[in-house]
Design goal:
Oligomer: single chain
Low-confidence stretches: none
Radius of gyration: 26 Å
Distance between the termini: 11 Å
Order of helices and strands: HHHEHEEHEEEEEHHEEEHH
Largest sheet: 8 strands, mixed
Shape: flat
Mean pLDDT: 87
Length: 357
């Protein structure tokens, strides 16, 4: 299908949705929500189409003026200059439309479950995991997202063996989905007396948060165990069996949650994490079946893939998937992730556009 045919199809669907919404019975709430969502998603495309058509019309008018024998030399010269400017701007509008027409990831608008775990490197890896956790927390705060702790396993010196949070807000998964993988750090640990640089790592997983309608979990497929929560070094932080461990028997996925003092709240949080992991499991299976399409994306989302290195002595961060190095490590660790995320998103869009052509 040509670009023009795609644009005609989008414009026709937009008009159809507008008419449907105008004539819809307000009592049919479900239909209104779904139609309004689709209408809103097409609005930026339709606006860009209008902009492109306006440019095309203006270019045609200028070309007519340039060939008009009755127009003066000065008028034709101005028309040529303006036409050249419009011709330079047209490809940018067309590119924007092509990006808007790219198939959307159904999970992009979802909230996310963010998991950060210490990898190789002992205590230093746990300290780095805590640094990454705070980096994402600051990024979430800057974007006005809600950052809710689900489970935290600490070590005594301020490091995290594991931290799981729910991040909710606008387009959370779309912005964070390229963060999954192994993050490597090179720095002198605070415990290192000789000043030698160590390399350690932490693993990040970003899962789209699943609703109950996305994933149905049968009660008989779960084994739920309760135990007493404990803090760093085994010190008891709770005198009741409030911590919860949920095992999904068919998949073998195990989720533990002990952040809340209430067993009921821990179970609810644990189920939220479990649904996200099961949803991601199903998405991964579907991606494997569409392996060719997966190859065209930036990174596989595999949490064993080394994606980024944070070099503290040189103050730089390198994303290995797109060969991007930024010499602004302090700003990035303080939550300034937009340059990295925007570059990853742009590269992903470019690859997908190339695969479509």
């Amino acid at each position: 299908m040509s670009l023009e045919e795609s644009l005609e199809k989008v414009a026709a669907r937009y008009e159809e949705l507008g008419n449907a919404l105008a004539s819809l019975d307000p009592s049919v709430a479900k239909d209104i929500v779904s139609l309004s969502k689709e209408y809103a998603s097409l609005t930026p495309v339709v606006k860009a189409i209008g902009e492109m058509r306006k440019l095309t019309t203006e270019m045609e008018d200028l070309e007519t003026l340039i060939t008009d024998p009755g127009a003066g030399d000065e008028m034709r010269a101005m028309a040529r200059e303006e036409l050249a400017e419009l011709k330079n701007g047209l490809p940018q509008v067309e590119q924007r439309i092509k990006v808007l027409l790219l198939p959307k990831d159904a999970a992009d608008e979802k909230n996310a479950i963010l998991e950060v775990r210490a990898g190789t490197g002992g205590d230093e890896a746990a300290l780095f995991a805590a640094d990454l956790f705070r980096m994402y927390q600051r990024y979430a705060e800057a974007r006005g997202w809600k950052f809710e702790l689900m489970n935290l396993s600490e070590i005594g010196i301020g490091g995290y063996k594991e931290a799981i949070v729910s991040v909710s807000g606008r387009n959370v998964f779309e912005r964070l989905k390229f963060e999954s993988g192994v993050h490597r750090v090179q720095r002198v640990p605070s415990t290192e007396s000789s000043g030698r640089i160590h390399t350690s790592a932490a693993t990040v997983a970003v899962l789209p948060e699943a609703e109950e309608v996305d994933i149905q979990i049968a009660g008989q497929d779960l084994r739920i165990d309760v135990f007493r929560a404990s803090g760093p070094g085994g010190q008891s932080v709770n005198t009741t069996d409030s911590a919860v461990r949920i095992t999904h028997i068919p998949s073998g996925i195990v989720v533990s949650c002990q952040d809340e003092k209430s067993q009921h709240k821990n179970k609810a949080k644990g189920m939220k994490v479990l649904r996200a992991r099961l949803y991601e499991h199903e998405r991964s299976k579907a991606d494997a079946e569409r392996a060719d399409a997966r190859k065209g994306q930036v990174g596989s989302g595999d949490r064993s893939e080394r994606i980024r290195t944070y070099n503290f002595p040189q103050g730089r961060v390198t994303d290995h998937r797109i060969n991007l190095t930024l010499h602004k490590l302090p700003q990035i660790m303080n939550g300034g992730l937009d340059d990295l995320i925007d570059s990853l998103t742009a590269e992903d869009q470019a690859r997908r556009l190339a695969n479509m052509s």
